[in-house]
Write a structure and sequence with these properties.
This protein is α/β, with parallel strands linked by helices and 493 residues long. Helices cover 26% and strands 14% of the residues. It contains 13 helices and 15 strands. The longest helix has 31 residues.
């Protein structure tokens, strides 16, 4: 096993709970006024772009019609990256985006499951608030305002109208044809079970990630001399289960230490997660099962990172980086054995929080390196609009991040929400600078003191602690404000 790299030291700044809530009764980060919809609006931090100096006195921010390259993976645990301080994982490409950009250490998905999360950030609305005709999606919007738009790889936004100019050929179809041409039977029967994690013996050319990269690199090459800007989505399916990858990626990770599972953690699971715990036999997993699956999962991230590096290499080779905003996120996380569970559909940090990096061109100004402000994927749509000097759609529910990027606002007064429906059980989470509260309609509650760099942050559920009764009451009121649980769909993917 390779020598662990030195962990990144994060230095968060925090305010008190009441400041984090903006005093009890404030709306969540997905609710803003129409005054925040112009590039110079004020809800995210107050300052107009032209007035917002950098966090260290550098060049002021100047919006322009930059290209956008939105790179994402599926089910990427927020801790499993070199820039996040993981001592084992090898993610040099993603780390390079972090080094050149702003790392949001408290970035959350709006539903810890594939489809509603993707519907949310593509529409700029909470998934429970999406109805036909009440949104304009990323693809439709950027195509309408004159961008050449493409999205390659996993879509999974289902019925959402999302009119990118090009979606490429389905990577699964391409890979199946390559298997046939190679005289190899296409794999069948892989499932999500942890104990079935394994390495695979075919070449990386038969990975769907390779196809997505090929399509993305070809797009960049085709549009390198365009006078109009482009929006490129690069969407990888790994490290989503089934847990499979080539040995070259996984072998160095197969003997990593397992996460600590503390007594009482099972009792702190929601009813839906206890059901999943039994359904997928999580209590029967052996140490061998756990180490192998975690090693394969890390290998899947390593595989994705290699493909990300090829896209970044082409971007640099063509001289496009200084004209391009680069984003790296995931639709949700993966518990990978933390808290004694696997998969998603819960609000623990491993599942609801995501890698969240925004890298602006250096020519646009000087930007913060890290932020521990509570933010959501839903905030990226309005942020890209402002960063590109575009008027956002009126339908957006997210809040712009540019004031945080420039250092004009520390974001400590922000809150972010997430929601989910699992096993017929609607629930909602709210995260402030200091606390995370989770509400379930069956009466179960979770309350945690939160520090995003602390991997054991959710060891103690404070919901029954009378010393935090007023905190819990204020957070519950804020979490349920304008919530539409009937708009949630139960999903198992």
């Amino acid at each position: 096993m390779k020598t662990p790299r030195k962990p990144l030291v994060l230095t968060p700044s925090r305010r008190t709970f009441l400041q984090g809530l903006g005093l009890a009764g404030v709306g969540v980060s997905c609710a803003h006024s129409k005054n925040d919809r112009s590039p110079g609006g004020g809800a995210g931090g107050g300052a107009n772009p032209g007035d917002a100096g950098s966090n260290d006195g550098g060049r002021p921010y100047s919006p322009r019609q930059f290209n956008v390259v939105w790179i994402m993976s599926d089910e990427h645990n927020p801790y499993a990256a070199g820039y996040a301080g993981d001592p084992y994982i090898r993610t040099p490409a993603i780390d390079s985006i972090a080094a050149a950009g702003t790392v949001f250490t408290a970035g959350y998905c709006q539903d810890p499951i594939c489809v509603p999360s993707r519907q949310s950030f593509h529409s700029g609305r909470m998934a429970s608030n999406i109805k036909a005709g009440n949104y304009e999606s990323l693809g439709t919007y950027f195509s309408r305002v004159g961008y050449t738009s493409a999205w390659y790889g996993k879509q999974h936004w289902e019925t959402l109208v999302n009119d990118f100019h090009d979606l490429g050929e389905d990577p699964t179809r391409v890979v199946k044809a390559r298997f046939k041409d190679a005289g190899i039977e296409y794999p069948k029967g892989d499932d999500r079970l942890v104990e079935h994690a394994h390495t695979i013996d075919w070449s990386i050319e038969l990975n769907e990630e390779t196809v997505v990269t090929e399509q993305s690199v070809a797009f960049l090459e085709a549009h390198k001399n365009d006078t109009t800007p482009f929006f490129l989505g690069v969407s990888y399916v790994r490290p989503h289960f089934p847990f499979t990858v080539q040995p070259a990626y996984a072998s160095q990770y197969l003997d990593m230490p397992l996460p600590t599972v503390l007594p009482g953690m099972y009792d702190d699971l929601s009813a839906a997660m206890k059901s999943d715990f039994a359904k997928y036999g999580m209590g029967n997993l052996t140490e061998t099962d756990l180490k192998k699956c975690r090693g394969v999962y890390y290998g899947m991230i390593d595989c994705v990172d290699e493909q990300v590096g090829l896209v970044l290499q082409k971007l640099d080779e063509l001289g496009l980086r200084e004209k391009t905003i680069v984003i790296y996120v995931a639709d949700h996380g993966e518990m990978m054995g933390q808290h004694g569970i696997w998969y998603k559909n819960n609000y623990f940090e491993g599942a609801a929080r995501v890698p969240f990096i925004v890298s602006m061109p250096s020519s646009a100004g000087t930007f913060a390196k890290t932020s521990d402000a509570p933010v959501g994927l839903i905030d990226l749509f309005p942020t890209l609009c402002e960063a590109c000097g575009l008027a956002p759609p009126d339908s957006l529910e997210g809040k712009r991040l540019v004031p945080i990027l420039t250092g004009a606002d520390d974001g400590a007064s922000r809150v972010v929400v997430s929601e989910n429906k699992r096993g017929g059980e609607p629930s909602r989470m709210i995260r402030t600078s200091d606390f995370k509260y989770c509400y379930y309609q069956n009466g179960f509650e979770q309350l945690y003191k939160v520090k995003s760099e602390d991997r054991d942050v959710e060891a103690v559920n404070l919901a029954a602690d009378t010393g935090y009764a007023s905190v819990k009451a204020d957070l519950k009121a804020a979490a349920l404000l304008s919530w539409n649980p009937d708009g949630l769909s139960d999903s198992d993917d």
